[in-house]
């Protein structure tokens, strides 16, 4: 796989095709995180295979979001943040000094809990990432926008109203728009931090179906508090507790025959 070679991460470049890239493999080695004196992650190892959906579960404050945000270096902005260990994507340590964080974030898209479209048109929201990369070719941009909206299963609903404000869409449509905006720059990994917790059941079902379809092209990690959701959509589940990775296995195994008592207690609702 070519996409995450050092070359790509250290020098800005624009893609000139609209084909999908391959999903990436993620590897965490003895990862520890502190916020000032508080240790939020206590030595985690994990390998996430390409083209899989992995759910991060665990009670509030156990470190799921902190761990997720390591993969696109979002924690770098947090005051007092310090990390030890290695995060490798396609074999490249993404915390090396020479890594271009802007480039990294094109490869690793993120979708947040609350849909956060820009106060711009539907089209401009999806085209945004391409335009800030300096891409000017209108035909290319149009094709990418359509492709991303189709991948996010929103195209049929918005194709006649691309100039309409994104803020006029429903919450569920806005979240699919945010997914399209992320997909337009063709990442290889999609990080989702509770992407459906603000949505109604129908919109949630749509996003879940979408996640299922997207794993053909992406490696997906989703933080969720919803056990049914984790068991419905993920191939692997990681259970975190107090900054430690207690169990990480195939989802079916975690939910039907967990190795650890703590996991069982959590998934059966006995704590958290
Ligand atoms: N910016 C920060 N500064 C200081 N401590 C933080 C910061 N962000 C998170 N923490 C602490 O790190 C720990 C892990 O937080 P994190 O948000 O990763 O947990 P989480 O499992 O995602 O929780 P939730 O399910 O409630 O979102 C918590 O104790 C939290 O208080």
TrEMBL record:
One BP annotation, GO: phosphate ion transmembrane transport
A GO CC annotation given for this chain: plasma membrane
Example of a GO MF term: phosphate transmembrane transporter activity
Annotated Gene3D superfamilies: P-loop containing nucleotide triphosphate hydrolases
ABC transporter domain boundaries: 26-267
Pfam families: ABC_tran (PF00005)
The keyword Oxidoreductase is assigned to this record: no
InterPro entries: AAA+_ATPase, ABC_transporter-like_ATP-bd, ABC_transporter-like_CS, P-loop_NTPase, PstB-like
Keyword set, alphabetical order: ATP-binding, Cell membrane, Membrane, Nucleotide-binding, Phosphate transport, Translocase, Transport
Top-rank lineage group of the source organism: Bacteria
SMART domains: AAA
Locations listed in the record: Cell inner membrane
Membrane topology: Peripheral membrane protein
Database matches in PANTHER family: ABC TRANSPORTER I FAMILY MEMBER 17 (PTHR43423:SF1)
Purpose: Part of the ABC transporter complex PstSACB involved in phosphate import. Responsible for energy coupling to the transport system.
Name the record gives this protein: Phosphate ABC transporter ATP-binding protein, PhoT family
Organism: Lutibacter flavus
């Amino acid at each position: 796989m070519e996409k995450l070679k050092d070359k790509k991460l250290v020098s800005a470049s624009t893609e000139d095709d609209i084909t999908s890239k391959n999903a990436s493999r993620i590897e965490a080695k003895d990862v520890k995180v502190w916020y000032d004196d508080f240790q939020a992650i206590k030595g985690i190892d994990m390998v996430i295979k390409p083209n899989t959906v992995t759910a991060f579960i665990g009670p509030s404050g156990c470190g799921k979001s902190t761990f997720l945000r390591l993969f696109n270096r979002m924690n770098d902005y947090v005051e007092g943040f310090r990390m030890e260990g290695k995060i490798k994507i396609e074999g490249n340590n993404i915390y090396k000094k020479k890594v271009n964080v802007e480039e990294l974030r094109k490869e690793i898209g993120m979708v947040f809990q609350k849909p956060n479209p820009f106060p711009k048109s539907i089209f401009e929201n999806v085209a945004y990432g391409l335009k800030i990369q300096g891409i000017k070719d209108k035909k290319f941009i149009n094709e990418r926008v359509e492709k991303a909206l189709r991948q996010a299963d929103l195209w049929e609903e918005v194709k006649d109203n691309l100039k309409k404000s994104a803020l006029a869409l429903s919450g569920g449509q806005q979240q699919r728009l945010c997914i399209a905006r992320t997909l337009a720059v063709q990442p290889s990994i999609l990080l989702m931090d509770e992407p459906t917790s603000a949505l109604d059941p129908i919109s949630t079902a749509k996003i879940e179906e979408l996640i299922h379809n997207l794993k053909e092209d992406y490696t997906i990690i989703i933080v969720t508090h919803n056990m049914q959701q984790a068991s419905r959509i993920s191939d692997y589940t990681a259970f975190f507790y107090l900054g430690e990775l207690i169990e990480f296995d195939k989802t079916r195994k975690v939910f039907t025959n967990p190795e650890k008592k703590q996991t069982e207690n959590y998934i059966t609702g006995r704590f958290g």
